[in-house]
Amino acid sequence: MNNSTTSAPGRSGNASIRLGAVDICKNYGPVAANRNVSLGIAPGGIHAIVGENGAGKSTLMRIFQGIEQPDCGHIIIDDTPIRLSGPKQALNLGIGMVHQEFMLAPDLTLLENLVLGNEPEAHSLGVLSTIDWSQAKRAGHALARQTGVRVDWKRHAGGAPVHMQQFVEIMRLLRFGARILILDEPTAVLAPPQVDDLFNLLRNLSANGTTIVFISHKMNEVLALADTVSVLRQGQVTFEAKVCDVDVHTIASHIVGGHSDKTVKPHEPAAIKAHSTGTICNVRNLCVRAKEMSHPLHDVSFSINKGEILGLAGVSGNGQDELVECLVGLRMPHAGTVTLDREDITHATNAQRRRLGLGYVSADRAKEGLAASASVLFNVIAGSHRDRPIKKGLFLNPKVMRTSAIERLTKLAVKYGRLNDVAQSLSGGNQQRLVFARETASEPTLLIVSQPTRGVDLNGIAVIHEFLKTFCDNGGSVLLVSEELDELLSLSNRIIVMADGRIVGETTAGSTDVTEIGQMMVMQGAHNG
Amino acid sequence: MADTTLPANALMPLLDKSFRLAFPFLVALAVGAAILLIIGENPFDVYALMAQESFGSLRRSSATLSAATPLLFTSVATAICFRTGVFNVGVEGAFVLGGISAAFVGFTLPVYFGSAIIPLAFAFAALVGAAWLYIPGLLLARYKVDEVVSTLMLNFVAFGISGYLVNGPLLSRESGNNVTPLVHEIAQLPRLLPPSTLHAGFIVGLLVVAAYALWVKRTPSGFESALVGFSQRFARAVGISIPATIILVMVLSGLVAGLGGGSHALGQLHRFADGFSPGFGFTGMAVALLARNSPLGIIFGSILFGALASSGTTVQLFSDIPLDLVNIIEGTVMIFAVVELGRITLFRRSVRS
Description:
The complex is a heterodimer of chains A (529) and B (353). Chain A is an alpha/beta fold. Chain A folds into 3 domains: 17-94 and 219-260, 3-Layer(aba) Sandwich (Rossmann fold); 261-357 and 444-529, P-loop containing nucleotide triphosphate hydrolases (Rossmann fold); 370-443, no CATH class. Chain A has helices at residues 57-65, 87-92, 110-115, 133-147, 162-175, 192-207, 219-225, 248-256, 269-274, 320-328, 350-355, 365-369, 376-381, 398-411, 428-441, 458-473, 485-491, 514-521; strands at residues 19-28, 31-41, 46-50, 72-77, 80-82, 95-98, 180-184, 211-216, 228-233, 236-242, 279-288, 297-305, 309-313, 335-340, 343-344, 358-361, 391-392, 395-396, 446-450, 477-481, 494-499, 502-508. The longest helix of chain A is centred in the middle third of the chain and has 16 residues, at 192-207. The radius of gyration of chain A is 26 Å and the shape is globular. Chain B has 353 residues and is an all-alpha fold. In chain B, α2 (43-55) packs across α3 and α11 packs across α13 (324-340). Chain B has helices at 7-38, 43-55, 58-82, 91-108, 117-143, 147-167, 201-218, 220-230, 232-237, 242-269, 280-290, 295-318, 324-340, 342-352. Chain B has 14 helices and no strands. At the A-B interface, α11, α12, β18 and α14 of A face α7, α8 and α9 of B.
């Protein structure tokens, strides 16, 4: 390898900062993903980086890995400013990244995966070299001892439990000489006991001098594992502290931006008056079993009243997505019931629920809310293509299709070129308005709305908020799932809070503030009994 | 409101679009020309000769249309699935089984059924083709069995079944080997321009393309299958059943392929014979890819490939150009048509992940 110019001096010496950032800025078009981010992580430390989605955590990690170049500022390795050309150089300098999706080859054994890309050779014969499996095995056992994990090396990666795959991935990076491990939400895919195993492993590594950076959404994990914590909000480091000096609520308030004293008025009379006219949707004891890559739900019960906006708050990845999928019919619960307008829809398909008056605005606009490469026309008509008058007799009526498409788009003031343009040619805000135009065209009684303003510009946010209010004033009901607490507070009549797959609290918007909700959001474990 | 077209720019996208559509074929002609140069032929002369042999006279034109007839069916059958994002390569097998089914009805039913034998034979062929592709449709929809593998393998099963039947129970006593008896004269599709082999199956083929166009543009299920092709997650979230759509398009595809086999048996060969299809199913795939599944494109593409096939045969007779040139052009068209077809590749990646 010809990187003598980049190999850091003092590699084995006692640097005061193992990995750091100095005034890093990164812009994607008009969006500032990182603004003057500075960090310093001591050797052997465990550093947590927390923040909402879109706060700039991933961008910073990509810069640490050399995948992205900062627009200004630089990163520091072992007290030395460095410009990384790519992940390979980062790894040569000892920075290893564990992604949320593991990079193991499923059809190879764990041992084969461990040495993949850097196989020990029995004889040096160029392409004819054979792999020294006994040496590989020794390396595997040594790493297992070092990390305190028992590994069945003969197992195929695809069939191994998900935490085992993760451990092998970590060992693989260690074998490559990683001294700094970056983990992107490492516990998102793990069950609780597996989380304990992972933490033990990481503590062992840290005790042996490996520096660990991990991104997390879960406060209790930060407190359990990290020495130091940084909070990113809107691309800036807004808070930094030693974990022993700080409590959950302080961190939470910095994550959600509760330090701003902005008081938000809930919107009133009409909706709150309508509030008392009965229940539209009732969820009772809903349970979803734990499965890898998804969060379980425990005994979730709540109801949505006619004419109200019910806010659902929670740190992302605490089961909100799974709950929404159960409500709209894209995931089947293992126990519990869901009723819509007094009809039991627990096992109804999405189409049946839509006929009963359900609308759904997905959090994943690009992949689920829209068919990005299909035309605007298709996107705005989809779902109601079997309804009259779009369908007349056996056939679609293209004329009615176009006129009702234009009518729907006009109602939400969607800006578009032509009906045949692809949906992804629209701006983020207009795409979301298109989704609303489609989902409300059939005049649903209940609208399940998840992260409606994610990636939407300010003007678009105002339109969507106004629309939701009008929708409720006209008697509709909304379940609003959002990570923007300001949004929840300004729109909702009531707010329920979800943590760790449970509803942990309920409050009315008029009588609460960001701090109180933030505290409820991180109250994990309180309801475990 | 905003749905207006600017006349000044209207021509540009059209030109752009037609270039993109023609691109794979132009590349294929260039590759063919390079090969002709290497073997010491003048590509312009050869292409001129081929054009002459394809459309030079009424007789040659009708030979071209005759060669295009089975492709109309197989390319529609392929397009039905491709636009849904289902990579069905089993049209060939369904075509062959449709052919033997129609021939069976054509020589088995008593003559006094009269010309009613023809619709009955077509119906049976369609039924067998549909049932045949229902199998991989079900496997994909219910058990996520990769449709490329299952349909490709089922082709060989179809060849095996038809080969057994034509050499065993359905073997003609008069003709010796590998052929069934001729269908009754009343069951044969009329020739449109004798002495050319162009037969009424061509008209049936055009009707099938028209029905396909109607399905694509005007039916809810056609609309749904397009949405499934764009994004399965999106389609599911707006209430479309993915398994039902997959099974539907597989069955429709088999139905059309079966009709195609029926048309070829009743109109062209008047029987079923071993080697019934010299790869009509796969050429139909090239046509569907080239046409981007558009009905009009399918008609043009079928005639184009029909022209290649009919001129290829005669060009071989009159010069040293091997028939393989046609295969080279066909293969190149397929490769470059797929290069352009980003949608299916993208879709498949998202399904696997």
